[in-house]
Amino acid sequence: MQWVTTTQVLEELRTSPEAEAWHRFCDHFRPVMVKFAKQLGLSATDAEDAAQEIMLQFFKAFREGKYDREKGRLSNWLFGVAKRVILNLRGHQPLERLIADKTTGTSFWDLIQDDHSIKQSWDAQWRQMVLAKCLDQARREFNPKVFEAFELYAIQDKTVDEVAQRFKMSRNAVYIAKSRVLSRLRQLEQQFE
Amino acid sequence: MNCFELEAIERYMSGELKATERDEFEGHLKDCPACMAKVGEATTNEKLLTELRKFHKESLLLSKYSKAGIESTDRAQTLVGERYRVIRKVGEGSAGQVFQAIDTVLERLVAVKFLRPRSSPNGADAEAWQEARLMSRFNDPNIAQIYEIGEIEDQRFIMMEWIDGLPLTEAWEGLPLQQKLRIYLGVLDGVAAAHRRNIIHRDLKPSNILVTSGLKPKVLDFGISLETSPLEGIEQGLYRGTPAYSAPEQICPPVKIYPATDVFALGILLYELLTDTHPFPQTSPEELFESIRTEYPELPSAVREKTPIPLQNICLKALEKDPHKRYPNAQSLSDDIHRYLRGEKVWSRPSYLTDKIHQDVFYHRQKLKVWHDNELLTEKELDKLDNIYERMISPADLSIIEARKLSLSQVCLYLGGWIVVLGSFVLFYKTWDHISIYWRPVPALVATALMGIFGLVMWQRKDYRLSVGFLSTANLLIPITILLTLGQWKVLSPANYPWGTESLYTGLKEATSHVVVGNIQLFTSSLCWLMFSLALLRITRSLIFVVFSIIAFLALLTTCYITAGMEKWSPDIIAGRYLYPGIVLFVAGVWFDRHAYTKYAWPLCATGLALIILPLSIIAGSENTLFGWLYRRPEFLSETEHQLLSFVCNGVFYLSLAGICRLMGTRLQRVLAQVLNWLGPLHILAVLRMLDNKEYDLPEFHYLIYRFLLPIASIGFVFGSVARQMKSFFFSGLAGIAASAHKFTVEHLDKFFAWPISLIITGIFCMFISWMVPRWKANRKLRRKE
Is residue B690 within 8 Å of B743, Cβ to Cβ? Predict the structure, then answer.
């Protein structure tokens, strides 16, 4: 998948009426919405529907110019839409609540009760998505050896010597790999938000 | 001044630089904006890095690169697909994670277990997967059902029944012993059902057995338990299971798994049931393995005083170190516990106790030899004691001993059976004008069918003792019932098949005076009897049916012989022909035995003895004076008095013969003496029967006393034999009861048609009592124990 920044996606969506822009936008945000919807107790099909609905509502509002990037992060704005749509859908679905209530009483419903925790859950999902996308992109951009050295040393807490020996590179090269990949990840991250 | 390398910045940030180096580095930073920028960037990167590490640790971000398995409900949801909605994670073990989910199609709760990815594919893994597949095909109320198994993205999962329950040991806390046993038997049923399909659990433990609110146990994780990861410290690939519930063969190489491996874990559970403690209380795995391999647990009765000893023996047998000494599978363990609950003898003899006996016996026997050498013991005493010890260390199978032993309930069983046989026999030789001839055989047919069906059902339920009683009764009923049916319905009647009608037919006609039975009918019933006996022998492989088969075969042979017209049924002829060869054969047998041809001596002696006993009894029993030279009737004796004297003479003769045999002292002679001893009580009863005869010149009230002598003595023999296990008296008593019943029928109930039916009903009632009483007694015993 080609790397596009969020700005680019939104810009395309605003200017180009073509379906391709819409699809790109969907590809970009759909997975996180589906995941979030499922976590709030929707079935897979319902979650897909919810994601579609969320994006349509967002698109409408966006076209009407209600969303201003300067005023707030896209993530927060999407959350507002998503919450409304999902809770609305969930209202018609008593099944799992019924069964969950019948059982031990420590179901997912008890864990997510208030808005605060729903928001936290959303943020976590969003952040995961961002990091996953950035890591994917970075993996593509860097030499595999460099990226793996970074992964082992920086993330998986292997010692410098171990990593250096494994990839037959100098200690300094490991440090450089870490620094370079991290800097790039930060750039990608900013592009995405 | 040169700029520092990245390494120095890294080390500075992580605080690894020494104090002097740090001062130097910080000094440089003040002057070098480039380095300052690098540090600033590193600090910002560090924040991102912390986040990345956090996600890595939660195995969310990098789950597909790691082998940690499924950690979130999301990931589980994506794997199981749309039909199931994952609700929450309920547990995690070494084998994998378990989630609760809803099957949206069938609207039921399911448990989804994700197995850890395989470290290396091997045969055992494939086998376990195969077993899980097998398990999913059968449904047992005591096993959590597997609905589906599958593999998605290298992740194997098992969808199974959701059970709301407590782990076994928590569930039975504080319950009385009887209830605990009931739960435990449920577990055994489940495991036994799997064992029957050659599926071994390998990881039975309390947490794998959930007990529902109705106290129904459910065994989880069947056939998938091989998936557990190897324990650290033990050679890889060798150990699988839970240390505290492992059998010795599971932990020492070469690892071999049998159904008995599960029996060991079940033994540990039984130990916990009895004592509330673990038999191997060590905590570290090394110590635990050592004690599982080598140590015997403390006796449950030492831990908890009130432990029933049979249950203790069962538990110890299940905990044998050698899997071949344990119960072979869960079913036989369950059978033994059922036996205990019914109040019967438990068969298990844990080797821990028998080893001890063997050791002691060994020392004692050595001591005996020393005593004998010092002439403190005679040869005979030494032999006797040695024999006793020999029997102690190599006892016959307890099941056989138990079946041979007379108990009150067993006496009821056989007495009841005998009464049913008698009732049917009375039906055979009495007229029944009250009912049409087509209905006459019905009571006997019904009784036979009932006995046969009951016997087979009991055999299926492994209640061998009762089963043998019922089947033996059915076996005795078969020839009588068939004769009765053929006679009443006039099938193969002598009118149409007149072969040899003058021989046995004539004799039977005289004896029964009413029923007309032809030789061909006799032949048919003997043939059916033989076939039925052989069928039972094949099903049960029990010694008693060998005996029945031989008798049936002899009966068939005799009727063949007579039907062919080769022999006429006449007491004097039989007596005259067979007594002399009998004596010759017997003497020859004794001669062979004394000259060490024991092999030939056995059949000679047995046949000889039979040929002596048969004519002698006929001579004494028949009213004619036969064999003038043997028992000549003096003028002053009436016929009856002469008969009585003949029986007394016979009895004395047999007992003297027994005495002589015993004096000769070989094994064969001892056995013969035992057989002859059986004739003693039989002759006592025969004499009593003779006394009840009005031909003596005695006052009237003597007859009144004599009349009741036989029945009272017979019943006394039957029930009195229980205390001292005197079977000769038991079976003579049965014969005496038959004789009394016969006399009673002839004299008083000749026309009372309900008499045989009431006999049959009484017999069945007796048998029913023998079945109920032990159960009731066991229940009461158990209640008192608690």
Answer: no
